[in-house]
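Exercise 7. Given the encoded structure of a 90-residue chain, write a plausible sequence.
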């Protein structure tokens, strides 16, 4: 047999959904600043650590040029074939 939903049951479900929604909204307003401060602090530590590592690693004189990456060497394949020049015929 089918059971019909009562009006009070429906109102109870709607009320619970609204309470959960507004509760999460209030909690997010309370904890979002703390979470953002924590994430900003972690990002600052990460970037600061990279900067310090880089500056300690290579003390440079003014005007000195360094190359960090070697360019890719292209190898030519001589077995491709022979180039044939052609002319168009009208």
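Solution.
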């Amino acid at each position: 047999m089918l059971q019909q939903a009562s009006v009070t049951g429906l109102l109870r479900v709607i009320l619970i959904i609204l309470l959960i929604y507004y509760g999460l909204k209030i909690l997010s307003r309370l904890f979002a600043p703390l979470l953002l401060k924590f994430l900003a602090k972690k990002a600052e530590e990460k970037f600061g650590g990279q900067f310090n590592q880089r500056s300690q690693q290579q003390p440079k004189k003014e005007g000195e040029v360094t190359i960090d990456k070697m360019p890719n060497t292209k190898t030519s394949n001589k077995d491709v074939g022979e180039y044939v020049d052609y002319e168009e015929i009208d």
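Remark. The longest helix spans residues 7-57. Students should compare their own answers with the one above.
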